[in-house]
Specification:
297 residues, alpha+beta, Alpha-Beta Plaits, 4-stranded antiparallel β-sheet
């Protein structure tokens, strides 16, 4: 049971040290919290964008916007021809009125825009959903090429172009998040290292006495390691709380985003949240080890 008594001693000493120098330790906790918050925010954003890419990849669409003055017979013929094309799973016809209702449902704050313009600015369309599979890209390109100049067609919107651009954006978000998070994490480790080093200097006389009475190196270093882990752990918990508050604010204020994504915004998974908190504790431990190594303790 000697190890249990030693662990209790480490925790008690670490908590006492945190309380004695709470303002200084609050700075290191805040640094870790900000770095992990930035990293978690980019992970959340990238995760939601990944979900959009995956959904759009499973259900590639080609939207043919039709001319307002196109005769009904022409539109029916075009719809029938599209349904008969190989690789086409479904063709939905969206009238101008339905397009307007979609806009109002997605952008409630702009619901009066058509009345301000005194007209419905949205065209009707034929939304072609392709069958999922490796040939979906080629089928979409073929449809665009064949029907771009068809009678009644005014413009074409091809999902795959946006998917490729969004995939590039996801990679960019991950890269920027990793870069900023890495820089801030190093700053957090540096801060904790210096705080622990100051604590060691402040307790130098006490540590010398402990050596004289036979305290082992592990017994002397233990409280400082636990202290660094606690700082990192607190920083991880604070960052997770801030992420939760920011996520609630965004989802409450931006209902249109969920409509555009086709699903509610998703927060970090339980596994990612746990990794974020434990990662903070590991950063604190690394900072403590660096400090103790420099202090030769």
């Amino acid at each position: 049971m000697a190890w249990l008594r030693a662990l209790v001693y480490f925790v008690e000493e670490a908590l006492l040290s945190l309380w004695r120098s709470r303002l200084v330790h609050a700075l290191s906790v805040a640094t870790i919290a900000v770095s992990l918050f930035v990293l978690g925010a980019f992970l959340t954003l990238a995760g939601n964008l990944d979900g959009v890419v995956e959904r759009w990849t499973r259900q590639i669409q080609v939207v043919f916007y039709v001319e307002d003055a196109a005769p009904e017979e022409v539109l029916r013929s075009l719809e029938a021809r599209l349904k008969a094309e190989p690789g086409v799973a479904e063709v939905d016809r969206v009238t101008r009125a339905q397009a307007l209702e979609r806009f109002r449902a997605l952008f409630r704050e702009l619901a009066t825009l058509p009345e301000d313009l005194r007209e419905n600015p949205f065209p009707g369309s034929l939304e072609v959903t392709l069958q999922p599979g490796a040939a979906a890209r080629e089928d979409a390109l073929r449809l665009v090429e064949r029907y771009r100049e068809a009678p009644g067609v005014e413009d074409v919107l091809f999902d795959l172009l946006w998917i490729e651009r969004l995939s590039t954006a996801v990679r960019l978000v991950r890269g920027v998040g990793a870069l900023l998070g890495g820089v801030l994490v190093l700053a957090g480790v540096f801060t904790i290292s210096n705080v622990i080093r100051l604590t060691v200097y402040a307790r130098q006389d006490e540590l010398d006495i402990m050596r004289l009475v036979g305290a082992t190196r592990a017994y002397i270093r233990g409280p400082f390691l636990v202290e660094g882990m606690l700082q990192g752990l607190l920083g991880g918990l604070v960052s997770l709380a801030l992420l939760g508050l920011a996520f609630r604010f965004v989802t409450r204020e931006s209902e249109a985003i969920a409509g555009l994504l086709g699903r509610p915004l998703a927060f970090l998974s339980a596994e990612a949240a746990l990794v974020l908190v434990l990662g903070g504790a590991m950063l604190g431990l690394v900072g403590s080890l660096v400090s103790l190594g420099r202090s030769r303790l």
